[in-house]
């Protein structure tokens, strides 16, 4: 009997991936220590800021502000507790142009106090103060989310987000589980 098998090598923090809290907190959870309840069938919200990003004189310097979160909540209702927040910046349009895509210099702390969720999803990895803030609180990050625009388009086809209730959006965050890992590639499944 014959069989097929392959070997592969990859970085923990490439493509769509989860940053475990230990990535910026030496006492944080590793990837396998993040409770499944924080990743399986969790509530989510998508904050769409791409219009603000690209109407800015310096799109690569855009930062998520409290006003963006409050605007989202005024249109779609309060973000449910323990939600994963997906921030749709539209920056993925520059993938795979490394120079443009990785040139984002986002480094604000201004939106952190209002965010108190088990996960945060952004389109960049350059915001180190936010990484530290979340890592200290055992909150994971998800970066380089592929096809987030397709999720946003699908849920918006039903009218408002998921029939008017952002709490109807749910995620399965499925990272590769590697013992001791500071992060790992992930598949993100969304449904309403």
From TrEMBL:
Record SUPFAM superfamilies: Putative cyclase (SSF102198)
Family: Belongs to the Cyclase 1 superfamily.
Example of a GO biological process term: L-tryptophan catabolic process to kynurenine
Pfam families in alphabetical order: Cyclase
InterPro entries with a match to the protein in the record: KFase/CYL, KFase_sf
Annotated signal sequence range: none
Gene Ontology MF annotations: arylformamidase activity
Protein known as: Kynurenine formamidase
């Amino acid at each position: 009997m014959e069989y097929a098998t392959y070997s592969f090598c990859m970085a923990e923090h490439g493509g769509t991936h989860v940053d475990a809290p230990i990535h910026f907190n030496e006492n944080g959870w590793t990837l396998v220590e993040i409770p499944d309840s924080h990743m399986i069938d969790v509530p989510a919200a998508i904050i769409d800021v791409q219009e603000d990003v690209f109407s800015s004189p310096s799109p690569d310097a855009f930062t998520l502000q409290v006003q963006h979160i409050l605007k989202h909540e005024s249109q779609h209702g309060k973000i449910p507790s323990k939600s994963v927040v997906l921030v749709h910046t539209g920056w993925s349009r520059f993938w795979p142009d490394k120079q443009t895509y990785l040139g984002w210099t986002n480094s604000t702390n201004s939106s952190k106090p209002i965010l108190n969720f088990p996960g945060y999803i952004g389109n960049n990895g350059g915001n180190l103060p936010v990484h530290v803030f979340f890592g200290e609180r055992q909150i994971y990050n998800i970066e380089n989310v592929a096809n987030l625009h397709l999720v946003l388009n699908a849920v918006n086809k039903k009218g408002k987000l998921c029939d008017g209730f952002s709490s109807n959006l749910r995620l399965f965050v499925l990272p590769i589980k590697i013992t001791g890992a500071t992060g790992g590639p992930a598949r993100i499944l969304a449904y309403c």
